[in-house]
Sequence to fold (684 residues):
Amino acid sequence: MMEKQDIHLKGQLKLYMQWPAVMSVILIAMTIWIYRLDHKAGLILSLFVLIYMIIVGVLYFYSKSAIMRDLIEFAAQYGIVQNTLLKELVVPYAILMEDGRILWMNDEFEKIIGDGYKGGANLTRYFPELKRNMFPKKDEQRAQAEVRYEGREYQIQLRRIPVKGFSEVEQLVELPKEQEYFVAAYLQDVTELNEYIQANEEQRLVAGLIYIDNYDEVIESVEEVRQSLLVALIDRKINQYFSKVNGIVKKMETDKYFIVVQKRHFKKLEEDRFSLLEEVKSVSVGNKIPATLSMGLGLSREAYSQSYNYARIAIDQALARGGDQAVIKDCNGITYYGGKREMTSKNTRVKARVKAEALREYMMTKEYILVMGHKMTDVDSLGAAIGIYRAAAAVGKKAHIVLNGVSNSIRSLYEDYLRNPDYPEDMFVDSAEAKEMINENSMVVVVDTNRPQMTECPELLQMTKNIVVLDHHRQSSDNIENAMLSYVEPYASSACEMVSEILQYIEDDVKIPAMEASSMYAGMMIDTNNFTNRTGVRTFEAAAFLRRCGADIPYVRKIFRDDMDSYRAKASIISNAEVYRQQFAIARGENLKVDSPTIIGAQAANELLDIDGIRASFVLTVYNGRIFVSARSIDEINVQVIMERLGGGGHLNASGAQFDHTDLDEGIRNVKAQIDRMIEEGDI
Fold:
């Protein structure tokens, strides 16, 4: 027979029930004290205390069971009320196993899932976005995610509910000791909230600036009586384009416009890929060259004034990249559209003179100058650095060229300077020596690149604020910032061309030794592929200036000669080239056994363009644990945009990129995939 178990009270209820006993003790103590004072009064009080204790005892033992019964009934009713409230709670609520299986749900949760619910189903069946790894782990108590179901959007919160000891008292469900917890799921319908947020976001204003890149050249190319008509037609094109999306256009100057458009309409312009760029080119009233636009648009979530600042940054970026393109800057970064044609070369050299005078003023205030080009220095980079070295010498300042490694392409030229007694031993220094030299009285001049990570010593740019940038490549989003002088001209054929122009204004009748003139002439030849690519009037004027200074053509030709191994390596690359989509030549260079495979790859890419029907060439070579891509085209394909999407950059007709691996098959697949993507998007 099972022994009867006593039920004991505890907590505040137990204390409350013990108060009569406490009072009895107090009364007994009082009776004893009064009995000592007066026996008769003590006897009478003792009688009353005894009667009190008998009544209290009877009431306590008689009502205890009734009180327990009422408590149990209240607890049961409370549990029913609690379950009812939870079941009918307006917040959708469910209890899950740790793997997502549904154990129980309230009415609201069941309404959302609908009639299709099956007992024991997994929650991920109804919300596919909810993956198993999204459930809270041991080291976290809650997690949340955005899910969709039957056209509605919900925010689901998942919380761990520990039930330690559950398996000891529950006879139906047994949980592993280390997993004694359930997961509570709460749903919040955020459909309307997201719609309001989206509507508010789409009503934000996008600020923009539009410049006519070649306004002076276009106006000069048309008869005077038609000039106003040409400008009016361009104005009409711009106003019509933005009126379709309820935008505002305000003309600030003859060739500058300010625009405002809502973000929701701005998306249409992005989908249209800013067709205004092409529409303006079609405006013709007898002008010999088409007008091109640069567009800079900015969007900030903080303030409209910041959007305008973004637009100014974007238009500067568009102009620095050669114009004929739209650049969008927002909180997430910079996006480029267009830029398919090379910027028209300007015949005026006013800008070169202004930059030369500014450079001279900066040089005069410094003790010495450090000049550096890009990593894996080529002839153009070295020639431009030597030109700046001569500019510093012309104003009486000491200069050093930062050079860490010497490739085959510049080895003979480099050794000629080392052997020449006219040049000091410290003409060339490495990065370690340069970092020891740098101080507040020195200046760093970067040539042939505007990307900090591409320079010979990026640390130098962090050690000084006195930075000058001279480059002919299109600017990218990671260009050198805070330079006190930046001269970036994408239309220039080479950095040597730019430096040659600057030298003519640094000092009257500047004397350039024949060897230095030959070096800069060689740089121009290598970047123009023997004056066949990206050459303008100023290119040949700069070449003529260098020839007058004594540039030795036979000497330059000797610099470019290959040894037999290099020639065979180039032939090997060309022989394994494949033609992709009947217009792109793609080749690989592996196991070339030469010191500078990237130079050989660039030369091979140039020669592949001589094949009829090839619009662009891509050569991939392995060097120092990386893949280097050399991309070349004549004038039909903008390889700079292709390489930029692969993390590189360069010119419209000559660009490059790098991959952080040595799998040539994967690299070729990436190049092909990018070509396919751009053909589908209409960029090629």
Observations:
- The chain has 24 helices and 23 strands.
- Confidence is low (pLDDT under 50) at residues 1-5, 165-174.
- The longest strand covers residues 152-162.
